[in-house]
Every structure is written in C-alpha cells, then in structure tokens.
Amino acid sequence: MKYAIYQMDVVVADPEANREKIKNWIEREVDDDKPDTVVLPEMWNAGYALDRLDGLADNNGENTIPFLSDLAKKNNINIIGGSIANQKENGIYNTSYVFNREGKLVHHYDKMHLVPMLDEPKYLNGGEAKGAIFELEGVKMGVIICYDLRFPELMRAIALQGAEVLHIVAQWPTARKDHWKFLQYARAIENQCYVISANSSGSCNGTDFAGESMVINPSGELVASGLPEQESTISASIDLTKVAEIRKNIPVFDSRVPHLYGE
Ligand SMILES: NC(=O)CCC(=O)C(=O)O
Q: Where does the CN hydrolase domain start and stop, copy by copy (predicted)?
C-alpha cells in the first residue's frame, strides 16, 4: 500500500483556507505519485485556536464529511482524515474521520486523551469509544490522535483487535519532539505494527510544531521521515508481509499472560 502524508502548515482559524490547501495537495499528489492512502494531521480545520472554536468548529462533520468523501471518491484514494474541531450536541470534540476509495465513511473516532499542555480539557470534550479498528482493502487498521500516543494501553487494545497498521494524526510541539519520535518507535516495536504518523509544521499561539512525521515498520525500522518543522510530503510504501514475519519470529502476542497483568 502506497502512502502520502501531508505534513501540513495549518492556517490557524481559517477552515476554508485549510480545505483549499488539502484539496490542492491531494490533487497534486494523485497526479504525481498516485498514493493508495493519504494521511492528514490533527485539528487541520482550525488549528489550536481553541479559544475561538465557537465560530470555527465543524458541526457534526457537516462540512468535513462531504469534503473528504468527495476527494476520496474523485481521486480513488483512502483518506485517514486527520482530525477536526467538531461541535456535537454536548460540546466540542477532536474528531477523526476515515474514508475508503468509494468515499464511504468507514470510521470515526473522538480523541480520548485531552492534552493539558495545550489546554484541550478547558475547551474540548474527550471521546469515550473504545480503541476501535477499521478495515481498508482488507487490512485491519487503527487511528489515534496525538496525546493518545502516550497511553500504550490504547494502541495495545487496537493491536489486540487485529490491527496491522496504526495511524497517528498529530500537532506535536517541537519542545517535546524526542518523545514524539521515541514513543512511535516503542509503539511499533511492542505491537509489531506499522506506525504511520502525520504531524503538522508551522506554529500557533507561540507553539512551534515539530513536523518529522514518520513511517516505522513492525520491526521498529524507520521507513520514511518528514523534515523538521517544514511543510512537506512524506511518501512511502508499506509491505504488510513484514507484520506476519516479525510476529512469527518474535511471538510476543503468544507470550502474553493477561491473567497475570491484573487486567
Ligand atoms: N496535540 C497534542 O495532543 C499534543 C501532545 C503533546 O504535546 C504531548 O503529548 O507532549
């Protein structure tokens, strides 16, 4: 499966400008590289303008769902749609949507772990869905959102449901970029999954975002990485036979003793 990751400089507080950027980027990538799947960063509609979301958040995905669905269908690509600030009945969530090549919405997830360092708990509601998985082209996959990366339980739950690829959509600051990188290696190695991340570049409210989006294989080897702090495209192909290979050679899932973990 061939990926294109948009390491995007999100325009703060301007959903229309960001939709235009994404449309132009997808159409350019499809013309040039013909990816099977594209990945967008976190909160791409408004950026971290959390104190101004009342006029900026989407409303139950009413703009985002048709926008990304049309792009997926017209360009014959799967879209891991990053995430958006999304107004629902009882508050604003950080919501990720996933679409297949037919433009069908196959998954949505509300970020569970709200990041205090960026004031998310002050403005957003946390999601409550368990770490569900979805299928694209017969492959079981998962998606988590940025700060979720710090909670190994969530990715382990996704891996135990059979996921072979974990996507991380993010706006991760430069100040903690080593955690961003090392945690991704850890998640790939301990779960023997591909880890594919889309981080933003640019800045908001004095916070610079690290870029350095990554593709890491199930053995913990770096396949591709984005430039630090610069808007760029990361292209990579993944070989899913590597998942079965490492799980045969180092059968950690067979070695687990959950009855002794106090689960
Ligand atoms: N957008 C985020 O969730 C940022 C996470 C972060 O800054 C951290 O975990 O450190």
A: 1-240
CA of 152 to the centre of ligand 1 (A): 15
CATH code of the domain in which 185 resides: 3.60.110.10
- 182 located within any domain: yes
Active site residues: 42, 111, 146
pLDDT in tens, 183-240: 999 999 999 999 999 999 999 999 999 999 999 999 999 999 999 999 999 999 999 9
Number of domains observed in the structure of the chain? 1
> Residue 203's domain spans which residues?
2-245
Categorize the per-residue pLDDT at 131 as very low, low, confident or very high, splitting at 50, 70 and 90.
low
d(CA 136, CA 101): 9
Question: Ligand 1, atom 3: nearest CA belongs to which residue?
Answer: 147
Please check whether residue 258 lies inside any domain of the structure.
Answer: no
Look up the pTM and report it: 0.98
Measured in angstroms, how far is the CA atom of residue 117 from the centroid of ligand 1? 7
User: Does position 75 have pLDDT exceeding 80, yes or no?
Assistant: yes
Ligand 1 neighbourhood includes 246 CB (under 6 angstroms): no
Q: What's the Cα-to-Cα distance from 237 to each of 3, 36, 154, rounded to whole Å?
A: 6, 9, 25
